[in-house]
Design goal:
This protein is globular. The chain has about 525 residues and is mainly α. It is built from 22 helices and two strands. It folds into three domains: about 180 residues, no CATH class; about 160 residues, no CATH class; about 130 residues, no CATH class. Helix 3 packs parallel to helix 5, helix 11 packs across helix 16 and helix 15 runs antiparallel to helix 16.
Length: about 525
């Protein structure tokens, strides 16, 4: 079931929300059970067979967690470490089978002279998210930072439908206290108003902004068309995907946080205007913030972090980001994307160290240069992230470098004087209809969306006065004139956005992060 579907908006969400508060007035734990059951229905809507995989994962990890809590009381430290290793290995083994078995067999098949017969394994949706959530819980339980013996609360923690499919990756310390509070199960008009506003804003981003630019990215990254792209096509396609994934993922985060807020449950912030970052380090503090937190706390720091010197930090950064790339998908394009970001982070840390030694703080020009370099690095890396194979990625990058020709849209030819046309012709520039960008309209739309991403405050900043979510990072709120407050004009604006979004929901598309 998709957030941007009529069934979710007009049936599932109202029924679950009303039932939650009706049951909650009678009994809090029963309301938690109602929400957990509704979350399982939400998950099974896609493919009910994989609900058994989810429940098996929940049951095994819950049993392991309870066992570790009991062993802690008995002082069996060595046994707890052994049990933790086995449980994490089982979680990663299940994730590896479903997510990477096809990739492994295909890679071996390319190297083997004998054909390999293999039945494709179907990837259960959301398995990366509920696996990482539970691994973090087990590790913290072993460290005596967590411990949950209430099965209903644990089931809800893992399966809670606003986060289950595409995040954010939840932390027990953020969620369990909310499930135990009696106030969570009683309706609040202000929470529903805040949550509904955020949900509508996210819906508008998804169906009006993200989906409208997707067609251009799809054209540019088609394997058949990629080798015919020229300079503007290549950059147009790369920027189209850069903006598509920005608004698509931002929309999901806003909708998930908004829906959860209606239930009086606050999810952590997961997206913080990442294209405004002035360094790759800053980018990863803003993009998929809960994944960055998980990789830092449960992979980078256990590997040693920066404790053993600069070379060890570089090694740990590369390992962490390469595995982070593989987490997103089973393919060499994702591996390269992760390795690129690992390399970017190493250079960024080295540059910071050099600046510190030189005592140079930079200035406005340095800040702009940092932003531009960061943005270009992110765009280039997105090419590998989006491309279906390495050949397509290389073709798009060749086009962006001008190695496949430079073609300008036909309408631009008529507005240029003769001498300018001659100079362009000598430079190898020709005019014609492009594969993806036949005129200036598409480029203007790209420019408009880029301006929104770069210069406007994000929804968290606009809603800052209402604190609609827990924060992983911290950024200032929007200017006073742009901050949301309960007012008839704000309600009218939200309703107008809702109507526009409904009008564009003729072709329901899934969120990009569903495939990860």
């Amino acid at each position: 079931m998709l957030f941007n579907s009529y069934g979710f908006i007009f049936a599932y969400l109202p029924i679950v929300l009303i039932g939650f508060f009706v049951v909650g007035r009678w009994h809090a734990l029963a309301a938690a059970a109602w929400l957990a059951a509704a979350s399982l229905i939400f998950y099974s809507w896609w493919n009910w067979h994989f609900t058994f995989v989810l429940m098996a994962s929940v049951g095994i990890n819950y049993a392991v967690g309870v066992t570790m809590v009991r062993w802690q009381a008995a002082g069996q430290t060595a046994a707890i470490r052994w049990l933790l290793r086995c449980a994490v290995a089982a979680d990663l083994g299940a994730l590896g089978y479903f997510k990477y078995a096809n990739f492994f067999v295909a890679t071996v098949g390319q190297l083997s002279p004998v054909p390999i017969e293999w039945q494709t394994v179907v990837l259960p949706i959301g398995i990366s998210f509920f696996t990482f959530t539970q691994i973090a819980f087990l590790v913290d339980t072993a460290r005596q930072k967590a411990g949950e013996v209430n099965f209903i609360h644990y089931l809800l923690f893992v399966t809670y439908f606003p986060h289950l499919i595409a995040g954010p990756i939840l932390h027990h310390g953020e969620m369990m206290p909310q499930f135990r509070q009696r106030a969570t199960y009683l309706p609040r008009a202000d929470a529903i108003a805040i949550g509904l506003t955020m949900f509508i804003a996210g819906l508008f981003k998804k169906v009006v902004l993200a989906d409208s630019i997707a067609v251009y990215a799809d054209k540019a990254f088609s394997p058949a068309a990629s080798h015919t792209l020229t300079l503007i096509d290549g950059w147009g396609g790369a920027l189209a995907y850069t903006l598509q994934i920005y608004f698509d993922f931002s929309a999901y985060c806003d909708m998930a946080i908004g829906v959860s807020r209606m239930f009086n449950i606050r999810l952590p912030a997961n997206f913080e205007s990442p294209y405004q970052a002035r360094s790759i380090i800053d980018f990863w503090r803003r993009w998929h913030m809960t994944l960055s937190r998980f990789l830092r706390d449960y992979l980078y720091i256990p590997l040693g972090g920066n404790r053993d010197g600069q070379w060890a930090r570089c090694r740990n950064l590369m390992v962490t980001m390469t595995l982070g790339g593989l987490w997103h998908g089973a393919g060499w394009t994702f591996v390269i994307w992760g390795m690129l970001h690992g390399s970017f982070l190493m250079v960024n840390h080295g540059w910071q160290r050099l600046r510190s030694r030189l005592g140079w703080n930079g200035g406005a020009v340095s800040g702009f240069a940092g932003w531009l370099l960061t943005f270009l690095a992110v765009v280039v890396a997105w090419v590998f992230f989006r491309a279906p194979d390495l050949g397509t990625a290389v073709a798009v990058l060749r086009a962006m470098a001008g190695l496949q020709g430079v073609v300008m849209p036909v309408p631009w030819e008529h507005g240029l004087p003769g001498p300018a046309l001659s100079l362009l012709a000598h430079a190898g520039v020709t005019f014609g209809n492009l594969a993806a960008f036949a005129g200036g309209k598409e480029l203007a739309w790209l420019g408009g969306l880029l301006a929104v991403a770069l210069f406007l405050p994000n929804l968290r900043q606009i809603m800052a006065g209402e604190v609609p979510m827990t924060a992983v990072g911290s950024t200032p709120g929007a200017p006073a004139g742009l901050r949301w407050r309960p007012h008839p004009l704000a309600a009218m604006a939200s309703f107008a956005m809702f109507l526009v979004a409904l009008d564009r929901m003729t072709n329901v598309s899934q969120f990009l992060y569903f495939q990860f």
